[in-house]
Amino acid sequence: MISVAAPSSAKRLAPALADAIAQCMREDSRVVVWGEDVTIGVMGPTRGLAEEFGLERVIDCPISEAGFVGAAVGAAIGGLRPVVDIMFSSFTYVAFDQIANQAGRLRYMTGGQVAVPLVVVGSAGAAGSNAAQHSEVPTALFLNAGGVRVVFPSTPHQAFWLMRAAIRSDDPVIVLHHPALAAARGTVDPEPLALGDAVVHPIGTDVSLLATGLMAHRARSVAESLASEGVSVEVVDVCSLNPMPWKAILTSVEKTGRAVVVDEGRLTCSVASEISAGIAERAFGALAAPVRRLAVPDVPIPFAPNLEAAVLPSEEDIAAAAREVVRG
Amino acid sequence: MISVAAPSSAKRLAPALADAIAQCMREDSRVVVWGEDVTIGVMGPTRGLAEEFGLERVIDCPISEAGFVGAAVGAAIGGLRPVVDIMFSSFTYVAFDQIANQAGRLRYMTGGQVAVPLVVVGSAGAAGSNAAQHSEVPTALFLNAGGVRVVFPSTPHQAFWLMRAAIRSDDPVIVLHHPALAAARGTVDPEPLALGDAVVHPIGTDVSLLATGLMAHRARSVAESLASEGVSVEVVDVCSLNPMPWKAILTSVEKTGRAVVVDEGRLTCSVASEISAGIAERAFGALAAPVRRLAVPDVPIPFAPNLEAAVLPSEEDIAAAAREVVRG
Amino acid sequence: MMLRIRLFEETLADLYKRGALVGVVHLSIGQEATAVGVCSSLRAGDQITSTHRGHHHMLARGLDPRRMFAEILGRAGGYCGGKGGSMHVSSVAEGAVGANGIVGGGIPHAVGLAFAARRLGTGSVAVSFFGDGAANQGVLFESLNLAVVWQVPALFVCENNGYTEFTPTHAVTAGESIAVRAAAFGLPAGAVDGDDVVAVARAAGEAVERARDGRGPSFLECRTHRWRGHHEGEESYAKPYRQAVDPEDPIERLEQAMRGAGLDPVELRTSIEAEERALIAEALAGAQAEPLPPVERAFEDVFA
Amino acid sequence: MMLRIRLFEETLADLYKRGALVGVVHLSIGQEATAVGVCSSLRAGDQITSTHRGHHHMLARGLDPRRMFAEILGRAGGYCGGKGGSMHVSSVAEGAVGANGIVGGGIPHAVGLAFAARRLGTGSVAVSFFGDGAANQGVLFESLNLAVVWQVPALFVCENNGYTEFTPTHAVTAGESIAVRAAAFGLPAGAVDGDDVVAVARAAGEAVERARDGRGPSFLECRTHRWRGHHEGEESYAKPYRQAVDPEDPIERLEQAMRGAGLDPVELRTSIEAEERALIAEALAGAQAEPLPPVERAFEDVFA
Ligand SMILES: Cc1ncc(C[n+]2csc(CCOP(=O)(O)OP(=O)(O)O)c2C)c(N)n1
Ligand SMILES: Cc1ncc(C[n+]2csc(CCOP(=O)(O)OP(=O)(O)O)c2C)c(N)n1
Ligand SMILES: [Mg+2]
Ligand SMILES: [Mg+2]
Is the CB of residue A274 less than 8 Å away from at least one CB of chain B? Predict the structure, then answer.
């Protein structure tokens, strides 16, 4: 779908998510929204929807994540397209069976009899001392559990198009958004993004930085600062994680021969590990240096601001790793 | 603890787990066991315990995984050492918050005030058409969630010593056992194993096969068959996954220069991915070929025997991959 | 229909004994009346969710015994192409979105199916079957609360056979009864003799009508008996654990009722039994003649 | 003690307004009586589990305001070394295993703590505080069932302030009352005026005694009021959502009671208030003087 006019006037990330949901709700009466306090839209993605679409389609839920995610699975099988705001994505742990073992398995177990067009949207990442149970990035859990698509937009443009693609998809899709990026600025351009896309920008020749969410922002600003040092950095924003945009990743790494994967999830069995292993398998010959992983060490996110900062990959960490793989 | 006599007369894997629990219960009255039908010991690890220790210490639970795993977290903080049999490890999804967000975070969130000496034991793997919800290997989910130790013994010797180590540990430990190996034969030798150990056998020089559980058995028999082809295979049984035995893994790979990681979990963000990425980072120079990953593709486990067999890494797959990395 | 279920399950028991089945098989012999009684008031478009022990629900819902056998035998012609098996038989087109291997896992699905039916104005209802053991899964209570708050056309049917696998459910279940627990969530909740197909049909019929009329969800506890073990082959490790029950036979109960009504069940039964035996035998033969699923199928159907 | 809580929380509200706090802060102003009433019958060795809104529980349990401020400010001297923060304040040594950021997450812990106390013969009890919103989490019902089946010395205290974040709880909660839900699980369950510290203390006292005597768990619903928003700073996005409540002041209620008993609270209050103000001011000053936690601490305490 190409158009000249901007598809959304949203100028910030969270409103772009809300606008994508609103447009889908206008186009398709099967789209309904539920979750805790979605009428107020505490978390952003559902703000303003209740006013336009009413309480029949925007429904505040009790604190029963397993129950209302499970109900959304049933509603999706029953012909609706539910968008569930789970608030913080770590609350999916309370509903993990419904996501992994139900939404992610039913189509297969029934031999393709059912589709589960369900969207679960939740915040992921550390944003100022929300501590261990409200700050983590569980992307890798969803990728390993399987059966669900996963996207993690880092700009309003990505947010609008990927949320739209998620709602229009016939598969369950987890949409993650970073609380520190809720107000991130940017315009929504007419070129759509689809599940499985990556955004390569800036273009560079010396090293590929592969990152998502807040880490993609840090990677882009590192690209700028390293340019002044004469290091040409390419950033691949892996805004879709399932499907994983291998083509974009491998094209970049085969060009630069060097890769640093930056991940706000925990290191072990992380997205960074997956991308590193996949590159090693598919582009070993092109590698001039081992793929470097930067991620949260295997610790929960601490509360104190100075400790929180210490466990997240910083721009300094990213720049240092990039220099290292380039200069050896 | 070294002794000349065999510490356990168990000759099969599941009884070795049960014997380890029994010995710990004799030594330490704080050790209690609960879960569904643990008095009958449906799954094996608790069989016979009720008869010796009575219903005060071996407790049948209602189908309330979140409740009784959470209760075990509380009991562990309160001074007991609960061993919870969750039956099939995929049932942990129903209790995932209690494992990941509670058992795995409380020590950290409280600044070290509490220890959570909890063991959760469950079967992992496909064993003859138990289908999608009773056959998977969720190891990577626990490794990425963090805060919990994970072991996955493949022999009676490993089963006895690692279960013993798990119960004596002050950390939460997930003990996985493969349903197809419940009756696997072997003797329990006096040399103990600790959390973080790997078992390297057979020794070889051409290629390292890194595997766990049923896949470790397949790797060992591939080692035998390839020997007849003149390929010298070393098998590293990664029976402890957290702590990950990096030293044993790297020592082997630096010697052979070639590695195939065989994993019964799903490929994406798998243990295989983690080991591959870790080797690439730490032993890149020693690699004569890219690390190969063999795992279940990103599909649930199907019911039909021929389909189930098709999604699991077979001895043929393993042998082929080993030949490939050796002969290039 | 109860006879068909009985014969279908006896056939599986026999196949299991002869080593002709793979996986774990949970039979419903003794529980026929709950499935038949409840499904008797359902129509096309209605959906049921079921459990690991769900063959009777599926047959009562009208599924084809041949395709069910084929699924349980892991053949290409099975309802799920052999990818689901005994615990996951389903036929969405026939109003059975399916069985679930996770106890309680299917209960919230019924709430969502009922919500969708109401929103789409189909006039359909959703029924969730689950056991007494499932009455200790928190998600049941979350589902009851949602169903009542949303006033969706759903019926929750607890098949209380007294056992949670090998544990007598009363030993791990507090409170007066499961129905009483449900009632505390503000929906009509009653208990009925689950071996009396007429009583079950009457109670379920009222509840389904209530749901269709937009008068909200209901809960029905059916007290029944499990004749066989938790699953076939359990003797291998389960010591005798059952209290002496003297299980009632729902089929005989129906025949008594007929006699009470001055009808002679014998003739009817013999004729029906002959028919059903033939039907089941043919279904099994047809299923056994089915090919295995092609291997490529293992890698399909993860995503749309 | 109610005054101390009030002043502690007002101090935090003020700090928040001045931008001196990080993270999300949920205050307990208006709910002092439940915490104080319940904790008044606890002794050393007993343990409480708490929630995201737990400062009042911790203070009522006797924790040190200075170390609490330090934790909430993310300082080295905080109870959790600054790694927990407002939602995770805890002091195991003082009988508060701690607050939980996951609604309902701490409830089963109390069952296990009580089980351990009984098995180890300590004579201690475990109390779990949670809100009315948590009464829709399935794990609550699983925990009630376990506690009754196991007959452990536990007390479940539901602080019903009428709100689940910004949603009036009655709008998402079916059934007559939360206490009625609990009663269906077969334990003594009652509701009490949660703003009347004397009534709460009496009811909780009986329940704690019952637990200590080995007569099993109890459930207590305390009906109270939340004076402030769900958390500080919510005005930024939460449109006015509160029905006009005319919240009762537990402190004034106590003073009325004293008057009723012929005592003059004024003098007492002025003296206590002066003391407490000094104590809180000193505690805050002490906390603010604390250093930040050393960065190495971020990488410790994952495993024993
Ligand atoms: C979440 C979960 N926990 C445990 C099991 C193992 N399991 C399978 S059937 C069963 C007993 C179920 O009892 P009930 O609900 O009464 O059904 P019944 O077997 O009596 O028909 C258990 C514990 C499971 N499948 N899922
Ligand atoms: C599992 C989970 N779901 C949702 C949340 C977000 N949340 C935090 S507090 C809260 C409301 C809790 O209401 P209640 O239990 O009544 O406690 P109160 O805030 O009124 O003290 C919610 C929904 C959470 N922390 N955990
Ligand atoms: Mg039962
Ligand atoms: Mg509340």
Answer: yes
Q: What is the ipTM of this complex?
A: 0.97
Angle at alpha carbon of residue D179, lines to D177 and D181, rounded to 5°: 75
Contact A44, A22 (CB under 8 A): no
Nearest CA-CA partner of A61 in A47, A51, A71, A52 = A71
Ligand 1, residue C102: give the atom nearest the CA: 26
Non-local CB neighbours of D5 within 8 Å, separated by 6+ positions = D28, D29, D32, D35, D36, D55, D56, D59, D60
Give the bridge partners for D145, in sequence order.
none
Quickly count: other Cβ atoms within 10 Å of residue C119's Cβ. Answer: 18
Tell me which chains share at least 3 CB pairs under 8 Å with chain C. Answer: A, B, D
Q: Note the pTM of the prediction, 2 decimals.
A: 0.97
CA of D132 to the centre of ligand 4 (A): 5
Measured between alpha carbons, how far is A103 from A97 in angstroms, rounded to an integer?
Answer: 9
Q: Does C184 touch chain D (CB under 8 A)?
A: yes
Angle at D238 between CA A92 and CA A76, to 5 degrees: 35
Cβ–Cβ below 8 Å for C83 and B41: no
C-alpha closest to that of B127 among B136, B118, B138: B136
The one-digit pLDDT tens for each residue of chain D (304 residues) are: 999 999 999 999 999 999 999 999 999 999 999 999 999 999 999 999 999 999 999 999 999 999 999 999 999 999 999 999 999 999 999 999 988 999 999 999 999 999 999 999 999 999 999 999 999 999 999 999 999 999 999 999 999 999 999 999 999 999 999 999 999 999 999 999 999 999 999 999 999 999 999 999 999 999 999 999 899 988 878 776 766 666 789 999 999 999 999 998 888 889 999 999 999 999 999 999 999 999 999 999 999 9
- Can you list the alpha helix ranges (DSSP code H) found in B191-304? 214-227, 246-256, 271-283
> By CB neighbour count within 10 A (0-12 exposed, 13-18 middle, 19+ buried), where does D26 fall?
buried
Tokens linked to D155: 């007390």
The pocket around ligand 2, CB under 6 angstroms, is made up of A 36, 63, 65, 87, 91, 94; D 52-53, 101-103, 130-134, 161, 163-165, 226, 230
- Chain B residues close to D92, C-beta within 8 Å: 77, 110, 113-114
